[in-house]
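Morning!

This is the sequence you dropped in the shared folder:
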Amino acid sequence: MKQSFSAALLLTLMILTAGIPWQAAQAAGPSGAIFTTTGDGSIVNANHFESKCAVYLDGGPGPNAPAGAAGLADGEYYFQVTDPSGKQLLSTDSVSNRRFRVSNGVIVAYTGIGGPVHPTGTDQDHPELGAITIRLANATCPSDYLNTPNNGGTYKVWATRVGDFAGDPSKVDNDCGNGCFHGFLPSKSKTDNFKAAAGAVTFCLTVEKQFFDDAGNMTPGVNWLIRTTDPLGVTNNYFTGADGRLQVCGLAPGTYTVAENVPENVAVLGLIVNGVILPEDSVYSFTWTPEKPAPVIVFQNSPLPPPPV
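The structure's back. Tokens below.
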């Protein structure tokens, strides 16, 4: 009887003491850290940018740090951009379009839906883990996000786990009461401040994919991979839409290289830039300055003839 009582008492104590750290863990925010950086993640916690369109989100370890250092907990997250106080929401697309995935402590995928895509870059810190960076502004930049009302040009970026978000992610903004900022709870979020110049001159890049069959009939190249390399050497992957076109806005002046993916069974047929027929190629490089027109690049392809029997 005495032994039964002691065992029961011990079990009760174990349950009570085990509950304390469990509750504390439930109340704690996400582990790790987020910071703003360049497209290739080469600068950890960069906080001064020449344009809103140059600011990328990164998380987890920095250069020469082990993968687990400051790593975010694995899972799905939302992010937002506000003024420094958090009172004014500056992001203009729906919360669901501002979503990303973390695996092995690093950001590995942009998973947003319901709006213009947020471009991504390959994070040079841990490419072996598939680490990427995500631009805070979507493809409509500089329209998205809004300029900060802060006189010093300061912004705040937030990240919170999907399960901790308080509101409807299909909406742009969420009124979730006192102590909550547009669906983001400070105790459940990671934040970082940065500065970016407003009103930077930018342009839109338009790429069209045309595919001609043996009879000369043209169909749009749907979901065709297009790679663009910006003046900083950052390469982003984009895909054409149902009309065979894609457009990326908010690009800063400088030299760019645009390349189409060419499968083994496809031939390069033509290259047209702003209505001018150029020697056929699958790659086009250009330098844009504010006095030049925005480039419209058309890649044309056809199927290769079948190999001889």
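Headline: The first strand starts at residue 34 and ends at 37.

More detail when I'm at my desk.
O.
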